[in-house]
């Protein structure tokens, strides 16, 4: 994309998919569905994009990015940590948190290298004090808030990066020609952007604000 706001996402795709704990695990899920025969055709792939991927990227990760923007505006660091734990709690088992913490430290270190002019002390404190592992959506959101990127643009960049990763990561086993894969990625990025615009005003309250006071979140 060659965009400062998505540089971290671009590097994660190039360097280490394991860093993408959280949203881009959609690609692993998708590859597993292909390998075990549950997805064999382009219509079945599009069914995956319709659900569960739209639910994951729009209603979970998109809402989290918006909630992190709101928390960052208020300097509410505990809420950022709670949101991150909520995200990871929906994707990781308890025994996997240690591995997620190691990946989070690597992710924040990469972010520091890519954005040396930003103050990422909040993220550093969270991962090095083991307050929360820091998943990709959290780090991407906080970086973009610091950059002054609009929340919608941050969400769009995140969704586009994930959709393109999934389409191009599975086009070969599904025999989808590259021009068609490009159109498919554009189509589903646009569909998710429309879903976000329709639902964003209620998503944060439903997904995160109502859970922020949960005694189970550190």
UniProtKB/TrEMBL annotation:
InterPro entries: UreF (IPR002639), UreF_sf (IPR038277). It comes from the Bacteria. Pfam families: UreF. GO terms for molecular function: nickel cation binding. This is Urease accessory protein UreF. It comes from Paenibacillus albilobatus.
């Amino acid at each position: 994309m060659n965009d400062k706001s998505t540089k971290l996402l671009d590097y994660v795709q190039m360097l280490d998919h394991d860093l993408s704990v959280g949203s881009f695990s959609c690609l692993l899920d998708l590859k597993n569905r292909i390998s075990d025969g549950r997805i064999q055709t382009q219509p079945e792939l599009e069914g995956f994009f319709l659900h569960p991927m739209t639910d994951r990227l729009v209603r979970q990760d998109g809402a989290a990015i918006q909630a992190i923007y709101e928390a960052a505006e208020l300097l509410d660091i505990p809420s950022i940590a709670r949101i991150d734990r909520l995200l990871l709690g929906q994707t990781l088992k308890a025994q996997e948190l240690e591995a997620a913490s190691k990946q989070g430290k690597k992710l924040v270190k990469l972010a520091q290298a890519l954005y040396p002019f930003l103050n990422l002390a909040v993220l550093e404190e969270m991962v090095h004090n083991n307050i929360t592992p820091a998943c990709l959506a959290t780090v991407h959101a906080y970086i973009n808030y610091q950059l002054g990127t609009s929340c919608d643009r941050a969400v769009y960049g995140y969704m586009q990066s994930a959709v393109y990763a999934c389409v191009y990561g599975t086009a070969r086993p599904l025999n989808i020609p590259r021009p068609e894969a490009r159109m498919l990625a554009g189509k589903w990025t646009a569909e998710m952007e429309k879903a976000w615009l329709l639902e964003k005003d209620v998503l944060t309250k439903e997904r995160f604000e109502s859970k922020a006071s949960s005694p189970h979140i550190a």
